[in-house]
Structure formats: C-alpha cells, structure tokens
C-alpha cells in the first residue's frame, strides 16, 4: 500500500519558486492565448459538437487527443516522481496505465463506437434500460472528474509558482480560470483540436528536457531511454528500492495498484467518450492504437527522468543523503526540477514547465466536458426534462463546467494527496463502478438492469469507502493513520479495484441470473455491437438493430 503523503504547500524547496521568469511566462501566456483562440474559432452551437465533436475526428488526431487527455499532470510530472520516491513500486503506474489500453483496444473501443451514444452514462442508461442506472453512472462520472481534476489543479499551481513567481494558491486559481473559460466556450470540438496541439507541446517539452539533461551531464547522447544504465546502478546504490522489488511495499500492494489502474483505464468516462467522437468503429480502433503509441513516447522516458532527477537531487540538494526523502512538492515537480538542477537555460526549464501546464489543461478540459455532458445530457435532459432545448442543455453544461471548476479549485488549494495518488483514486472508482458494467454490458447480453444497479452501488461503497478510510477522513480530521488500518492494508484508496472488481462482477452476474432477462430489443442491440458487418459512417447499433440486427449467424 502507498502511504498518502500530505503535500506541504509553499514551503522552501529546491524548485526555484518566487521569481517571475519572463521568457517562460511569455511562453505560457502565448500558449494560453493560442488555446483560447482555438477554442473560440471552434466554438460550438450544437449539442453533438459540444459532447462528441460532431463525430468528425480522424484516427491520428483522436489518438493525439487521447494522448493529451491521458498525459495529465500525473503522467507528465507524477510518474517520474513516483518512480523516484518509490522505485520499483512506482513502475506499477506505468504498467497499469499502459496495459489498460490493450484491453480497451481488444474488447471495448469498437463496441462502444458501434453502440453510438454521447456519453458513458448514456450507454449505461440505454443498455440497462434504467433511469436509475443512468443517474448513478452520471453521479460517478462527476465524482471521477472531480477527484481526477484536483490532481491537475495541483500540478498547475506548482508550475505557476515556478513560472510566474506567484503563490501556489494564486497559480491554481489563475490557470483553472483559463481552463474553465476555454472549455465552456469551445466544447468537445474545440477541446479536441486543442488537445492535439497540447500533445505536440507537451511531448516536445518533455523529450527536449530529457535529452538536454542527458547531454549537459554527459549521461546520454542519442537515446537517453536506453543509455542510463550506469546512472541507474548509481541510483540503486543510494536507494535500494530501485532494484529490489517490493522493498517499499509488499507484493499485494503492487498487484493491487497495477490491477486497479488497468481496469480503471477501461472505465474512465473521459477516455471512453473519445470513441464517440469518430465516425465508425474502425477509426475508434485506430484511435486507440495511435493513442497508445503517443502515450508510450512519454512513458518511455519517465524512468530516465526519475534516475536523472534522483542523482541530481542527491548531488545538489540532499548532499549525498539520497533522494527518496524529497518533499512532496519537490517530488510532484521532479521533471521540471531535474532540468533546473542540471543548470539548463531558464527558457528551456520554463518550456518544460509549460509542457506540464499543457498536460494539466488537456486532461482537465476532457474531464470538464465529460462532467458537463453527464449533468446536462444524462441528468437534466434524460432524467429531468426530456424536451429540453439545445440552448437549455448548453446553459446547464456550461454551468456545470463553472461549478465543478470552482469546487476543484477550492480543494486543489490544499489537496489530500500527491498528484499521482489522487489520479489513482479516480481510477479505482472507475474500475470498481464502471468497468464491470461496461464489460458485461457489451459482452453478456443477459446482464440485467437489476444486476447493473446492484453492481454499481457495490462498487461505489467499496471505492468511496476505501478513499474515505485512508485518505479523506485522515487528511481533513488530523488523524495520523487510516480510520480502520487493517482495512486500508487490504483495501487502499488508490487500489481498491483488486477486491472491488471481482466482488462487483460476482454481484452483477448473480443478480442477473436470478432476475428477468433483458428485453429482446436490448439483446439485439448488444449483438449488433459485435456484428461482423462493417458499419456505415455515423451509423450506430441502434440504427441497425431495429430490424433484428445483423449477427454472425445470419
């Protein structure tokens, strides 16, 4: 289990905060102006553009958007920090977050596109013919977006400290205000265009910083990803957990975390909605392939950053006392701190920091769009007012973006855990609540409404209970350990899905067996999601299944 580390905000750290840096500041301002301009140019006036970009996005562009959506502050900054401070255990994040995409590619991407709705709660509500199921799914979507976005706000605040010399709090408020503004303006269409731009910025910044550090220190030349063997050995001599599996946490903790991140990847609404922005299932599959490629370009370098940053911290900051004891604020900014300690030019360090801002903005934008669609489309329109006009939906959607943005900003001023841990918690929620109903809903036509409802409620109790037990309640009540320590050992908030997912699967299957089978039209809809017949552009399973659908037996 990972012990939650309370972030210490605004303390003296090795990161050069407090001074305004002109060139990095101009870089970030130009970047933000570009994002706002793109958002305005692609501003939306129709609901399908707000939620699914008019289903007009190509595979490479969507793959870049998936990459940017995925390369949050947790990936850009947090993964290197987790490997540096937790060593071998931190690799569970890389393994989990990458492996989940293979399951998406094989079992879910094309099937979700064929189903052809707007949102994840849309799928749940229609597949399980239940407004209650839709409502629970919408609530869970809002909760995931909220928890996930807190980590992004924390990353924005840290980078604003370095670039603008402002306090952490002002940095969070400033950059979150920009994010709220351009997402509310542009919707999914403009956000997707921005995500492609943001990916280009963040991958260039991340890679350039890694190469420049390797060159400046004489550690690498052409491929720093493969050339840091001797530095790895040196880091391992300082901190044993780099080469000793499970030195900082047990075998169970590693498996639980990796598993939770794998299934959480397959249950994240803001990832799954990317499959609804393309025109057919083939494009959905290729979007996943491209997305995985773009993600791996960054993840390949996280371990190298962890080693380079750890050695530089040991040499320049701790005076030979190692690097796992670095403060939470320093760890969360390790990628930028690495380039600073290597004494790279200030403009280059600032560009690396700007890449972190782009990563945080991209993910936060995707989360806010998903949250707004859950509120406006799934709750307001489908559950409250079926004849809601497009104007009303747009107002509710944008109000949701504003409301959740304000809440995230407030909690982000004093987040309850490190960036990577906060993101892992949202994955645990997605894995426990959504993955079982998505998977069984697509692959077992006899999954019933009652089974899905029972499963989602069970997943909520397990995942939220774990987070409250070992993170939220201790953080905000002053407790030094989990409310129930024994429970936290086997059901940590960051990795509750190892227990939760099998339990939820069992609940759904058992309840489905003892309740009435789904209506025949729902079964036809599920069969059509697996039809060997290719779909026409913009077509959905519902369009075809009304006449009985096309199955492999026909």
TrEMBL record:
It is found in: Membrane. One of its GO terms (molecular function) is transmembrane transporter activity. The chain crosses the membrane at residues 22-42, 63-84, 90-110, 131-150, 162-185, 197-216, 251-277, 289-313, 347-374, 395-413, 419-444, 451-469, 489-514. Keywords: Membrane, Transmembrane, Transmembrane helix, Transport. Residues 532-554 are annotated as: Disordered. Pfam families: SSF. It is a multi-pass membrane protein. One of its GO terms (cellular component) is plasma membrane. The keyword Membrane applies. PANTHER family: NA(+):SOLUTE SYMPORTER (SSF FAMILY), SODIUM/PROLINE SYMPORTER-RELATED. Belongs to the sodium:solute symporter (SSF) (TC 2.A.21) family. This is Sodium symporter protein.
